[in-house]
Batch of 3 targets.
Target 1
Amino acid sequence: MKKRVFSGIRPSGDLHIGNYLGAIKQWVGLQDDHEVVFGIMDLHAITTPHDPEKFRRNTLETAMVYLAAGLDPAKTTLMVQSRVPAHAELAWILGTMTPLGELERMTQFKEKSRELGTKGGIMAGLLNYPILMAADILLYQADAVPVGEDQAQHVELARSLAERFNNRYGKAFTLPQAMLQKDTARIMALDDPPKKMSKSDENARGYILLTDSPDAIREKIKAAVTDSEKKIAFAPEEKPAISNLLVIFSEFSGRPIPELERSYAGKGYAEFKADLAEAVIAGLAPLQERFRELETDTDSVFAVLRGGSERAAAVANKTLA
Ligand code: AMP
Ligand code: TRP
């Protein structure tokens, strides 16, 4: 039997190459030999400040990125979380068996509440976020959840909630596991390599958006922080900045990191960065082209989401029942 896979992204604004390399790119490779459902997690996105005007547009754009990146609606179920009420319903049930302390200990909650505490308050929805995420995963009986490293802790919680539920009420859920892509599970910010690349970053120089123009990409890579010693070598501990750039270069060019190290031995950062920028631009070009095509036909994108959400609801409702 094919393994079942579920994952999703919050439509909270523009997606960056960290989202692509850490998550979406591996999803595309899974759709042929797995049963896959990918969601646009709008109920999660409203746990942090957002602009209601832009919100609808963000859902559409996220769907367009999914399709432009190569997710094929004939093989993949693309759904919108709020269209499938079973998610919220199962989250309620799971919430009755989640100790408060486990939620308060979640790294993402601690980070986000530190940020938001100064900006006007932390909502209960932010604390309960991981419960809803567990419901997302368990409703589809997912075996594997391909995400970046920052989400692994949440998948762990989903697994322990499934275990707890199965023990108490009888086996209802498959136990899920995070599926991490070793090299790309944590793409770092270009302007501050100890931090992960994030769209909530104040500084747009920290991330490259999937929709950034070639000139913007060149500029951001040119400005990217490098390490003190001039050597181009992969050593994430000692040289976090250049190692991050090597990972990005390798992913977009398809050239292995050791080969890149050899071909830039003795060369300067300027030349390396110029070539890296061209590799990213070329790597994103097909995606950007499809994205622009989809922009002229948003009705068909909404139709994909409607169909996918209906299919997803049928599976989710069966589990919930
Ligand atoms: P988010 O934008 O937080 O909804 O994340 C969507 C997906 O992208 C999740 O699977 C994250 O783990 C992944 N992701 C986000 N930022 C990064 C990053 N800097 N490196 C690798 N993966 C990431
Ligand atoms: N919390 C995830 C993130 O920020 C998004 C998400 C919501 C998700 N529900 C999920 C990811 C279920 C995987 C499975 O990236």
Note: Strands lie at 3-9, 34-40, 76-80, 144-146, 177-179.
Target 2
Amino acid sequence: MTGRLVIVGAGQAGFALAAKLRALKDTRPITMIGLEDVFPYQRPPLSKKYLLGEMSFDRLTFRPDAWFAENDVEVRLSTFVEEIDRDKKTVRMQDGSVLEYENLALATGSTPRTLPASIGGDLEGVYTVRDKRDADRLAGEMKAGRRLLIIGGGYIGLEAAAVARHLGLEVTLIEMADRILARVAAKETADIMRGIHDAHGVVIREKTGLARLIGEDGKVRAAELSDGSVIDVDVVIVGIGVTPNDRLAQDCGLDVGNGIVVDEFARTSDPSIFAMGDCVTLPWQGGRIRLESVQNAVDQAESVAATLAGGTAPYEPKPWFWSDQYDVKLQIAGFNLGYEETLLRPGAREGAVSIWYFREGRLIAVDAVNDAKAYVSGKKMLETGKNPDKALLADPATDLKQLMA
Ligand code: FAD
């Protein structure tokens, strides 16, 4: 009989692995262990429609709870895996119980960075957004007229700003770097998104860090910024990035370095243990990257399922990402790492625009703002290796289909 697969982490990647194995008619015993008290669900709406109150939790879950028993996937919720014993091939839970595995898959995700308590990070009213519980607690604070400070101008911070303005809060967003989205997007994309937030009344202060949060009776009341100014605040959202949950792997001696080190089959340095999703560092064009996206979590997990079921194809990431802010849909295809040149292409409809990234003269990524056509065409060009003529691409009169031919 095929031995048990134990999946640590009942999130996007953990679920995708179990679901794909069953879709491939693989009948091995599967146990999925998750720290949260709910069955697996998608996180993106937590900083979008769910936080806004426009989407209920049952629309977030991937499958009805009954699906897991019906498909013979044992799920242990509210359970933390504390230790892996690679010699005995067992995992130990925090309640002391032990479970044997033949294969283990680590899908432990990542944890938002927090502010140190020494600068007020532990005050009441200071939030990060990673799971349902965070979003539920934060939603209770999102009341019209309250003053919200967002620390960090990445996607989660900007999405939360959009939700907060919609709900009538006063929003200030500070970003320590020269500009918002500095880590993930080009200046052109940042300029467009900043303009949209300006128009919606968000005060964005770039090159501005946080000196400290000031509390009263344990609750946040004000923030002193790096330029010495002090602003009154009622609520704070910290969106300053995440760190991979690789501790469990490190403690049992697996190779780890800013994420669990895996090969192109998502195998760790122990061949019986796989890892996938936000918690890994994976091979990419001769180097290593971490990808924090639904696309990567799902595709990497599905490739692990295929490998377990006897497949031999390596995982080749085809990155894509999206962000919803107000009525703006930003869609991203490719990975802009190391870009040297960008090109801005106005779209056919008002407000539609795309930014194309090139490295060594080759297209590597595209950001499309309210421009589904540019996104679909760019994605296709990246998949087929088609390099568009830049002069033609920059000309809005050029039909993108012509560039794909
Ligand atoms: P997760 O889905 O985080 O699952 C990991 C699970 O493992 C968690 O439930 C955790 O509690 C559990 N766990 C960890 N350690 C243990 C342990 N030792 N024992 C038991 N359980 C454990 N991506 C996009 O592509 N587009 C978006 O628009 C987008 N928006 C996002 C908005 C928010 C607010 C957040 C938080 C993320 C967003 N993402 C988005 C990122 C995307 O959700 C993640 O990349 C994806 O969830 C990663 O999947 P994962 O399975 O690796 O981790």
Note: The longest helix spans residues 294-308.
Target 3
Amino acid sequence: MKLYNTLTKKKEEFIPIEEGKVRMYVCGPTVYNYIHIGNARPVIVFDTVRRYLEYKGYEVNFVSNFTDVDDKIIKKAIEEGVTATTISERYIEECHKDMEGLNIKPATTNPKATEEIDGMIEMISTLIKKGHAYEKNGTVYFRTRSFKDYGKLSKKNIDDLEAGIRIAVVDEKEDPMDFVLWKPKKEGEPYWTSPWSDGRPGWHIECSVMSKKYLGEQIDIHAGGEDLVFPHHENEIAQSEACNGKEFAKYWMHNAFLNIDNKKMSKSDGNFFTVREISEEYPLQVLRFFMLSAHYRSPLNFSRDLMEASQNGLERILTAVYNLEHLLDSAASKELSEAEKNLIGEIESLNAKFDAAMEDDFNTADAIAAIFEIVKAANSNLTSDNSKEVIQTLLDKVLKLTDILGIQAKKEEELLAEEVEQLIEDRQNARKSKDFAKADEIRNLLLEKGIILEDTREGVRWKRA
Ligand code: AMP
Ligand code: ZN
């Protein structure tokens, strides 16, 4: 399996540090608002990478953080007259809901910056002891020039970088390239006590600390959007390697940006959509399918036309699955004919095509094309005269490959309102005759179908979850 490593600028064979295991860290969102569809790109892409690794048999330890202390969170808290924790907890919860809609597998660990302050103080202390950091008036800076490999990820030269910096009139830093590890609080800001000041950590230190705590000093894959290469990931490397004296991450993966109207999607320009807004127009599966229809390292332009095309494409797969399930009901079990054996052979080679696409730096666009070919083969070859075995083989194949991409290909058969009413009536009758097991069974069935019951004084009310 090959993946593109930003560190070497090459596609490289993936060889994990420990056989059969993958330690993976993905920089997560800053939680001061609903996540936007740009933030959803790394979430979807790296969940798909994880799913493919698991399909290959690796045990993946997947860590993704929430940045829950930050200027933007504090600003929003002040605007609303609530605490920063109220804001971050609210949007972490909303983010989890969006991720569920996007069918993102829960991370092994989702650490929060505010719960890891002790670890940050410890790492900063070590960096000071080793001469890689220094304190000035309560602020601690990383001594960037003390780390010889600075710039190795972003391929930037420290002297060129420095030449581009406008030096502030009063600068307490030893060098303009030094960056903050700890800063004193301002009035009204959340703070923690440290040996240097009552204050809070800089942004970069949190990922170095959480990655080390949950995955160890050396990890296999560190990932995020391409805007994080510099300075965030470059600074993470400097901190971690200066502290631990070991290579931090073996492979660095970065997704390209999601644009709108061919312009970079940005909150400040107002040209962005939240995942929540999109969920009101399309099932979130469509958004996931749309994101995977392009290679993760290519910029992707969001448009209604492309979303419609994705919806149609996805619908084609769902319909094929639905039809195959119905064929199964009427087909008989019998020995495979020659034509059926050939068809299974064709499907196996399309599966190999899918794998080859994914092995080539996660080319999900080509992987989806292979699924479409399987769907086409199913649609044009199978009827209820075919053997149950061949229909089952094709059905399993489509379900397995779509699942690797995190696409749920089974159509949810939604209950109609009158069916719900009927079940509620059945449940009431069961209760009247004290058949509580049956009443519970009906309640659970409804719950599975996304129907929530509320027993009120006026009777039973229901709503869709
Ligand atoms: P932030 O909350 O800004 O720290 O971003 C969280 C993640 O979303 C990071 O990995 C960013 O690189 C990524 N990201 C932000 N905007 C976009 C975008 N328009 N396209 C793709 N990735 C993005
Ligand atoms: Zn990070």
Note: The pocket of zinc ion (ligand 2) is lined by residues 27, 207, 232 (CB under 6 Å).
